[in-house]
């Protein structure tokens, strides 16, 4: 397989982009869907922002380096990756905080309706944020299995809120069909693009989505805890009111008025002072993903994951696939179920093959296509086969749970 893999790499027109990332020697990184790799240009850009813009120019940089518009500038660069217009996206806060803002805004736009509909097993923070609003008496959380969602859209539903590519299985929702069904029932729709933005083509405009959020530190390679982004369709720009009425979302923050007047459009989603270092790093990651192009990335990720499965079957490794077998129905990942997934994952990490474990029994491999090679697929499967065949994972060191899995 290794030879086949190398010839596929040699023929891959995108292979050179790997060199734009700092992929550590001896590591096969199958966790770019949790924390993307470091772009090589990021340290120099941060050095410039820290030493020059902050160290030397100090507070003048809010104007001279245009720090004040960095959330909009980065948002505008993310927009074409998700089928949005530049002024419909802003980079700020975490996904969780943006969910809070947008769920609240949606509820206020549907007076008389309180239900926020989602699926059980959605990413925890997504369902927790609904729960928080429920405790405030503002929302009613309803979780319904994905097959039954369309049928559950009754006239109590204010918002349908789903994650486009499921974080555990990679399974995709049909964004267009579900958005249409929700609209027909009078509900609004919020898509969480954390596992799809920057990894596969998303067209929020064509789907007529109302709201979206997404993550900066996964496929956009913005660095640990990078700012997230939020999208609001232009048709809702007048109507949205968000509850975190901080001064940076004010129409004129530097008038220091006693009364809050929201800024126009997505600018009102800002709350406090944006973290400039985080945004600067995110901008480098977004620029690089935009340069490669989401269509190309997605095409390669499908080839990588299909090649991974071929390698598994040739190595006679039998693992239960929990991701859709059809590549068009999944994001850039493959997940498998195994009773000892945690220990297997740890044994692989000890060999330099970094995937991750998702409670209780999922072994998850992310294929961030910007920097992975077919060779990595063949080698990862060789290691996986050896770990399972030799029983290496049974060593007690591989069973100790760390704080972050
Ligand atoms: C990664 C991820 C998040 C992360 O939320 P943060 O508040 O940025 O930590 C949220 N939702 C989904 C679906 C994710 O995959």
UniProtKB/TrEMBL annotation:
Pfam families: KYNU_C (PF22580). It catalyses: 3-hydroxy-L-kynurenine + H2O = 3-hydroxyanthranilate + L-alanine + H(+); L-kynurenine + H2O = anthranilate + L-alanine + H(+). InterPro entries: Kynureninase, PyrdxlP-dep_Trfase, PyrdxlP-dep_Trfase_major, PyrdxlP-dep_Trfase_small. Its EC number is 3.7.1.3. It comes from the Bacteria. Its cofactor is pyridoxal 5'-phosphate. Keywords: Hydrolase, Pyridine nucleotide biosynthesis, Pyridoxal phosphate. Signal peptide: none annotated. Pyridoxal 5'-phosphate binds at residues 96, 123-126, 163, 192, 195, 217, 247, 273. Homodimer. Catalyzes the cleavage of L-kynurenine (L-Kyn) and L-3-hydroxykynurenine (L-3OHKyn) into anthranilic acid (AA) and 3-hydroxyanthranilic acid (3-OHAA), respectively. This is Kynureninase. It comes from Qipengyuania gaetbuli.
């Amino acid at each position: 397989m290794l030879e086949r893999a190398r010839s596929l790499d040699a023929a891959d027109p995108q292979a050179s982009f790997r060199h734009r990332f700092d992929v550590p020697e001896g590591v096969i990184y199958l966790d770019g869907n949790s924390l993307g790799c470091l772009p090589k240009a990021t340290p120099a850009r941060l050095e410039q922002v820290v030493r020059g813009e902050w160290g030397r120019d100090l507070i003048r940089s809010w104007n001279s380096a245009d720090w004040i518009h960095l959330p909009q500038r980065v948002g505008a660069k993310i927009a074409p990756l998700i089928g949005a217009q530049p002024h419909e996206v802003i980079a700020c806060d975490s996904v969780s905080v943006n969910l809070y803002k947008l769920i609240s805004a949606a509820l206020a736009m549907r007076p008389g309706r309180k239900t926020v509909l989602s699926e059980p097993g959605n990413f925890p923070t997504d369902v927790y944020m609904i729960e928080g609003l429920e405790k405030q008496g503002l929302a009613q959380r309803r979780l319904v299995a994905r097959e039954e969602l369309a049928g559950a859209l009754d006239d109590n539903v204010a918002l349908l809120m789903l994650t486009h590519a499921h974080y555990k299985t990679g399974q995709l929702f049909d964004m267009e069909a579900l958005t249409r069904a929700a609209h027909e029932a009078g509900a609004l729709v919020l898509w969480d693009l954390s596992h799809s933005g920057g990894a596969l083509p998303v067209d929020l405009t064509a789907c007529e989505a109302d709201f979206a959020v997404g993550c900066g530190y996964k496929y956009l390679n913005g660095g640990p805890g990078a700012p997230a982004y939020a999208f609001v369709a232009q048709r809702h720009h007048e109507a949205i009111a968000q509850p975190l009425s901080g001064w940076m979302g004010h129409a004129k923050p530097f008038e220091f008025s006693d009364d809050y007047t929201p800024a126009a459009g997505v600018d009102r989603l800002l709350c406090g002072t944006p973290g400039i270092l985080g945004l600067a790093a995110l901008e480098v990651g977004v620029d690089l993903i935009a340069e490669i192009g989401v269509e190309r990335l997605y095409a390669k990720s499908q080839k990588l994951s299909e090649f991974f499965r071929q390698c598994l079957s040739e190595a006679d490794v039998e693992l239960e696939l929990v991701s859709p077998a059809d590549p068009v129905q999944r994001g850039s990942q493959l997940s498998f179920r195994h009773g000892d997934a945690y220990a297997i994952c740890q044994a692989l990490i000890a060999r330099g093959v970094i995937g991750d474990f998702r409670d209780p029994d999922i072994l998850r491999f992310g294929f961030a296509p910007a920097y992975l090679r077919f060779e990595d697929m063949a080698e990862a499967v060789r290691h996986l086969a050896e770990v399972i065949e030799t029983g290496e994972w049974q060593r007690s060191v591989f069973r100790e749970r760390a704080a972050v899995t």
